[in-house]
Amino acid sequence: MRWDIFCQIVDNYGDAGVCWRLARSLSSIHGQTVRIFCDNLPTLNLLASGVHVDIKDKIQLLPWESSFENHRHQAQAPDVVIEAFGCQLPERYLAGLLVAPKKPIIINLEYLSAEPWIVDFHGKSSPQSHGIPKYFFFPGFQDQAGGILIDPVPPSSPPSISSIPASLEKVWSQLRPHAKRISIFCYPGAPLRKWLEDLASLDQDFDILLTHGHAELLGINTGQAIQLPEHIQLHPLPFVSQDEYDWLLSQCDFNIVRGEDSFVRAQLAGKPFIWHIYPQEDRAHEVKLAAFLDLYLEGANQDLRLSTIAAMTWAMPSQWFGAIDAWSAHGEAWRAHLLKKQGGGGLAARLLAFVG
C-alpha cells in the first residue's frame, strides 16, 4: 500500500524521530511505499542521516508544500494517510483526496501514553463531514493499544565496541574504562547544573555524554562553565543520527532522555533512565508520567519504586543512586517484557493489521 505521513515538528527531534522510525519500519520491514511530508525537512534529514542507502532510498522525504499537487495522477493516490500527532492536513491536499477515485483511510496518530483511558478510544472512528473514514490510533504499552515502535530491534546484548559509529569514535577514545557513563538529552528547564553537582558528591567516576546543544546549557565555551571535580568528566557530542543515538543509549549505564522516540529507545536499551517528559502548562505531563511509572514499576519492590520515582521527578542522585544495580536488573527485565508484549512488530505491524 501507499502511505503518506504528515509531520509538523513541535518538539524538534521527537516528532520527526517518531515519523521517520515509523516510515522506515513500514517500508523496510513490511514492504510498504511511504512518503513523509514535513514542515521542517532539515531536521528530518538530520535524523535520517547515517542510515544505509538501501533503507533511506525506499522513503520519500518531501517538504510540506509538495503535498499540494499530490493527486494529479491516480498512481500517486495514497491508501493510508497519517496525521502524526493530530496535525491538520493541508486543505489543498485534502481537496485532492476528495476527488481521488479511491478514498484512503486517514489515521490520527496520537502521542504515546500509558494512561488507561486510551484503550477505550484506540481504533475508534472520527466521523468527518467530507466522508473519508478517519480513526484515532493510540500508541501504548497495553495489549489493546497501538503498540510502540520497536524497529530496529536492539540486540539482546550490548553491541561490540568495534561497532563504534564514526561520529562518536573521537569522544569514545576519551572515555575511562571504569567510569560509569551517563548520556544526557533533556529540555532546558531541567535542574541540570544542580543535578551534576550533586552527582559529584558520590565517590565514583562518571563520564557524562552531552548530546548536541547541552554543552551550551552548562556554559561550556561561554566562559560560564560548570565547575566539577576531576572524577566527573563532561564530553560534548556532535549531532548524531537516530541509529547512532540508539547505539549510544545501549552503551551507557544511565540515560536521561526526552520526547517520545528517545523515551522508547531508552527502555529498549534495557538501562535505567530518567524520562524528562515535555512539560505542559496544565501539568498533564505529571499524569502521563505517573501512568507510565505504574506500568513500569509493577511488581518492583518498595525501595526500587521509591528510588525510581524520586529519580524521575528530579530528586538529586545522592538520594537514589544506591539503587542503581537493582534498577539496572529491572531495566533488563522490562526490555524483555516489552519485546515479548510487542511480538510481531509493534506499532507498525498493528497499524498494518488495523488498516488491512
From TrEMBL:
Q: Does the keyword Transferase apply?
A: yes
Q: Which UniProt keywords apply?
A: Glycosyltransferase, Transferase
Catalysis performed (reactions): dTDP-beta-L-rhamnose + L-arginyl-[protein] = N(omega)-(alpha-L-rhamnosyl)-L-arginyl-[protein] + dTDP + H(+)
InterPro entries, alphabetically?
EarP (IPR016633)
**Pfam families xrefs:** EarP
- Domain of life, source organism: Bacteria
Q: Which GO terms describe its molecular function?
A: protein-arginine rhamnosyltransferase activity
Q: Which positions carry the signal peptide feature in this UniProt record?
A: none
Transferase among keywords: yes
Q: Which family does it belong to?
A: Belongs to the glycosyltransferase 104 family.
Q: What does this protein do?
A: Protein-arginine rhamnosyltransferase that catalyzes the transfer of a single rhamnose to elongation factor P (EF-P) on 'Lys-32', a modification required for EF-P-dependent rescue of polyproline stalled ribosomes.
Name of protein? Protein-arginine rhamnosyltransferase
- Organism from which the protein derives: Polynucleobacter sphagniphilus
